[in-house]
Amino acid sequence: MSKIGFIGLGLMGNPMAANLVKAGHEVAGFDLNAANLQKAGGAGVGIAKSAADAVTGADVVVTMLPAGKDTLAVWGGGVMTAAKPGTLFIDSSTIDVGSARGAHEIAAKAKMLSLDAPVSGGVGGAEAGTLTFMCGGAAPAFDKAKPVLEAMGKRIVHCGDAGAGQAAKICNNMILGISMIGVCEAFALAEKLGLSHQALYDVASTSSGQCWSLTSYCPVPGPVPAAPSNREYKPGFSSALMLKDLKLAQEASSAAGAVTPMGAMAAQLYALSNAWGQAGVDFSGIIHTIRGMQEKK
Ligand code: NAD
User: pTM of whole model > 0.85?
Assistant: First the structure.
């Protein structure tokens, strides 16, 4: 069992830290938000007075923060001097590839091991301990992280060197955003053509149109009972987070000189949808925007 420092105890970090405690690890947590910190305390997480306090004596440190600037602020703050040399730092936030590589450099200078390990699976997966971790970093860091990550997830994938975890995350979510819009367009067209939702689902789900956006997160109520469309599009995975990830994909695409026109279009459509008040609904709720656009034609 390890001593773990956990910084960032929000919607995701709180249940993740709780699962580390359940697995028998000794966890010291810190968050700027006092209510989130108290909630973690209720799940058996030790309450630290600062980020530096949380990492003192730790074998492993996990950060779960909103954005790249937050990871760089925490990793570049007092934690590298407060932790013992050789401590493993894992960042599970979803951040841009450049900041992820910058965080690895901060850790390397301080003679620490480091891993970028963003997740998929959302709050439900964090609570159930079934997250997928996409990991970037050297093999010794991955090997040390694996048993810790297994307390919070069911699939732990080593994607490559520094930044490869974040690269895998944004590439996957770019597929997801684009495919969801494609599925929504097909349902909106079917409605205009008098084809029932169920008939389209029955054909496409067993034909070449089959994809996760259709068969797990079907954007119309009915065919997939567990999909957010059956509970008024309550997330799930919010449109705000989908836009965040699509923007990260576009930043990475520009920096790398890749050609991603569908990703760019998906980012613009989610930006439009969010501007029309959809930011807090599940990302499958983009069907409302697609239908609205068709109505205006
Ligand atoms: P959240 O806003 O609920 O939690 C972030 C926490 O970090 C907050 O409690 C905040 O107070 C804390 N924080 C910010 N700066 C800090 C600092 N300097 N020191 C200590 N604490 C600090 O966000 P979340 O939904 O838990 O998401 C966390 C990360 O996981 C994000 O990068 C997000 O994109 C990613 N993610 C979220 C989901 C999801 O469904 N919520 C799914 C996959 C990935």
Answer: yes
